[in-house]
Amino acid sequence: MPWIESPFFDSELAEADLAASDKQFVQTFADQGYVAFDTGIDTKVFDRIITALAPKYEEGLIKGEAIAQHRLQDAWKYNDDVKAIAADPFILGRLELLYRRRPIPFQTLNFDVGTQQRTHSDMMHFSSIPERFMCGVWVALEDVTLDNGPLHYYPGSHKLPFYNMTDVGIKATRSLEASNRYMDYADHYEEFIAKVAVNKGLKKELALIKKGQALIWAANLLHGGEPITRPGSTRHSQVNHYYFEDCVYYSPIFTDFALQDVFLRKIVDIGTGKEVPNRYLGETVSVKRTGSSRSNAYSRIF
C-alpha cells in the first residue's frame, strides 16, 4: 500500500532521508488526505489553455455521454499545454515523494466553470490493486473564490473504508444496461456518501487557491464542488488523474468480484504516449477486450 497509508508510516517517515519541508509536505498529506502547493508553471500556459479550449466548450456533449458542455475529457490528446501540465516534472516529483512509486498521468479533465458536483470518492471510478495507488491533482487556471464554485473536501476522510457498489447495495456490472444507467447508480452512491459524511461528523473545507496553485488529493478523499453563487462566473481548472506503476487498474463501479467479473482499465501514460500494462505482484495480467463501447474497458476472469 502507499506508505502514507501504511501502519508503519510514522517510523518510516522518521527514518526517511528527507528535507524538513518535504517531511512536512508528506505528513500533511498523510494526515489530511490533501496538500496544496505552488506549481511554478508560467501562468501564460494557463491563459493559452483557456483561450484554446474556449471553442471546445461550445461543441456540446462529449463522446455522446450525458456530461455537460463545461467538461472536456482528455484534452491532452490535442492540446500540448494540457499535456505538459499533466506530465509536469515538478508535479510528478511531488507525487513520487508521496507514493514512492512512479506516477502515471492517465486522464485530464478541463473545466471552464465550477462542477457543482456532489461529494464523492474517486476510488469508485479509479481503483487499484494494491489499493489506493491513485490520486488527483487539481490545478487552478484562475483564482478560486467563494462565489465561483470552489472545490470542497473533507480532511481526513481518506482514512475511511472504501465503500464499493456492494456496500451501497448495488450489483455492479459492465453490461450496456449499466453503462446507460450510470447516473442512476451515481445518484444512489452519492446519497450514501452524503450520509456517511454526516454520520461521521466530518468537517467540510473549501479550496480557495490562487491561479498557479494545485491541490493533490488521495484516492479516497471525499470531495466535490460548491454551488456557483455568482451567475456567469468562470472557474477555469484542470484535473489530472494519476495511477502508479506496477498495479492492477480497475473501476469498482462496474466490478463484481463475487461474480468474478472485473472491469480492468487500459491506461496510457500521457507523458510517454505508451500503454501501461496491468501488473499483479510483479506479473503482467493478461486481459481481453470486452464488447463495451467504453474504449478503455477490459475484463478478465480471476
From TrEMBL:
SUPFAM superfamilies cross-referenced by the UniProt entry: Clavaminate synthase-like
Key words, A-Z: Dioxygenase, Oxidoreductase
Pfam families in the cross-refs: PhyH (PF05721)
Highest taxon above the source species: Bacteria
UniProt cross-references to InterPro entries, sorted A to Z: Phytyl_CoA_dOase-like
GO molecular function, one term: 2-oxoglutarate-dependent dioxygenase activity
Segments passing through the bilayer: none
Cofactor(s) required, per the database record: Fe(2+)
Protein name as catalogued: Phytanoyl-CoA dioxygenase
Naturally occurring in which organism (per UniProt): Flaviaesturariibacter flavus
Phylogenetic placement of the source organism: Bacteria, Pseudomonadati, Bacteroidota, Chitinophagia, Chitinophagales
